[in-house]
Amino acid sequence: MHVPRDARSLTSTRVTLLTEGTYPHSHGGVSVWCDQLVTGMPDVDFDVIAVTGTGREPIVWDVPAQVADVVAVPLWGPAPGGRPPRGRRRNQLTSAYEQFLTALLDPCAEDRFATALYTMARAAADGMLSPFLRGDRAIGVLAGVWNRPGLAVREARPTLHDAVTATALLEHALRPLTAPLPEHGVAHAVSGGVAVLPGLAALERHGVPLLLTEHGVYLRERYLGYRTAPYRWPVKAVALGFFRLLAEETYRRAALITPGNRYNRLWEEQGGAAPESIRTVYNGVDPAAFPPAGPEPERPTLSWAGRVDPIKDLETLIRAFALVRAQLPDARLRLFGGTPRGGEAYRERCEALAAELGQAEAVSFEGRVDDIKDAYAAGNVVMLSSISEGFPFTLIEAMSCGRATVSTDVGGVREAVGDSGLVVPPRDPGAMAAAALELLGDTGRRAAMGEAARLRVIEQFTLRQTVDTFRTVYLELSALGRIVPGPPGPSGAPLTVPGGRVAASGSRSLAG
């Protein structure tokens, strides 16, 4: 889907946001962050390349006028058009794809990944990659690669069905390479993974600087997700090899990386990012938009806000609440937030767990709320139970509202909370219940923590600070003009200009 907007000046700063499953087709924390950027910078022109699910997702945000184009790239919709390559182009693509697969499966061949990826990107731009990957030749190439003597994956005895499955997963994952590439300005990927593909291709082809912001660690979340994915190990080896090498290539080639917390920075450095290319930029909220929530509910209540998703680990929260209710029979748990399409089974599982534990009448799934502040005001204590987070909006919003919080120690949570809330290990219902009971039983401590939390937001995590920081980054990256792409560096070796770094001789490092 292509949404044209009003024309804008070609002399102004231009930014192409690269998103996956978020803005402007979905609600949630990252979408809120994107909306804050575009609405907070009426002086900056934006485009959006949005990786979506089926392509039928509606635009759910009121897209401002400075967003000129929204291009959706569905991963699971109808296959992209085009035709398979023939003759010499077919042989070239077959060779590149063989190198690509070898890099995914053979640790000694990982330096072939980047060259093969960019060859495949050019084939995608010409409408040849997807038809090639849907053909028998691609399946045969994979079957040949992972059955080579000496490869660990061979010991798992991959089958033809595995080859078909893995090839299909790669075909879908590489579809963002068919998007129209930005040719000017800055490409800003607001997550790692497949959303970055158009940005890498634009850097390689047009020299467009790539900015990467990771709210959560995309690679870590893929590892978590594939633990329970319904695939045999050979398929997982291909998929996780792709995500790992894509992350490493992104970290090497990005002009600047702006993680939302220091925890993400550690992952990025481990993945090959040069420390001087990283600058932590925290999420921010407008304290005036999230004022003190006012009186607490009379009945002891835990509230939670977010999307109903396995990464939020509502099952641990429900188990913790059952332990709380054993001590406080009058307690309630109120869960606010929508269920993404495809997530209905997880919500049903959570509802079934609450019933199994005898808590069905005290646990309420209340869906999306018109004003998110009402979700925070609904609880004496606001809970966050996630197994993976970046720098969660729901947490700093609740803090701005002056509510005491109990959160899991993931991502940037501890950086956000400081001493103004309680932090517990993830997937530990006992520790979560003990912390909730501690706060529910001490009105004075709850009030003191809520006041400290709001003050912490005002001092450190305001929206104005975030927007001003990114405006400066956009202007400085735009001033670089086009980066002359150099050859991809070997795995683990950061590149220097030419090739993606911005701290050239005579220029000021943006990572400061």
Summary?
By secondary structure, the chain is of the alpha/beta class.
Explained architecture:
This is D-inositol 3-phosphate glycosyltransferase. It holds the Pfam family DUF3492. InterPro entries: DUF3492, PelF-like. This protein is of the alpha/beta class and 512 residues long. It folds into 3 domains: 2-78 and 179-282, 3-Layer(aba) Sandwich (Rossmann fold), CATH 3.40.50.2000; 87-172, no CATH class; 301-461, Glycogen Phosphorylase B (Rossmann fold, 3-Layer(aba) Sandwich), CATH 3.40.50.2000. It has 18 helices and 13 strands. The protein has helices at residues 29-40, 87-105, 113-125, 129-133, 136-146, 160-173, 197-206, 218-227, 233-253, 262-270, 314-327, 344-356, 372-377, 393-400, 413-417, 429-440, 443-460, 463-479, and strands at 2-4, 14-20, 45-52, 67-74, 186-189, 210-212, 256-257, 301-305, 332-336, 363-365, 381-384, 404-408, 422-424. A 7-stranded mixed β-sheet has the order 1-4-3-2-5-6-7. Strands 10-9-8-11-12-13 form a 6-stranded parallel β-sheet, sandwiched between helices. The longest helix has 21 residues, at 233-253. Mean pLDDT is 90; it is low at 1-11 and 489-512.
